[in-house]
Amino acid sequence: MGWFETAASLGGGLLEGGANYLGAKAQEDAAGSANALASRIYFDQRKDLKPFRKTGTAALNALSDIYLTGERDYTESPGYKFRLEEGAKALERGAAARGGQFSGRQGKALTRFGQNTATADYDQNFNRLATLAGFGGQAVNAGNQAAAQYGVNAGNAVLRAGDARASGYTGIGDGISSGINNKLFLDVLRG
User: Fold this and answer.
1) End-to-end CA distance of the chain
2) Is the pTM value of this prediction over 0.85?
3) Spatial distance between the Cα atoms of 156 and 152, rounded to a whole number of angstroms
4) Which of 13, 142, 161, 183 could form a cystine bridge with 28, CB 3.0-4.6 A?
5) In angstroms, what is the C-alpha Rg of the chain?
């Protein structure tokens, strides 16, 4: 066998191996890009959900402070004070117009109004805070789902990169082996 046939046979095997390596490298790079994209999407989602988590946490803390530990009084809210003061003023003006400003009837009306306002505000305040706390819980769930999806995507990208690298190495070996086998086959034919 001449040098040209030997060189062509071995060169063809090396070219095949090189092409396999380059193809595998391209796959590995694509898997790395997919992982980077999944990472960017995940961290963008976390950033987008942060205000909801923060609001939910603050509302949950307020619920605890008001309704569990008693560290805060729900009647300290500006809305409650305003409604109570304005309602009491309206009752007093009405009583004054009727000439019964300092009557027992007026005292009962003010007491009833205060109790009803407190009850309604207590329920409304609780419901508002519970709704806000729910936003935080939903944001946490969405963040957990995003994290799980990112884990799946990143894991798959790493596996694809490893498969591509292994495929490239196998391809190089196959190409070189093919070149050597071709040379040996030609040697046998010339024999």
Assistant:
1) 9
2) no
3) 6
4) 161
5) 39
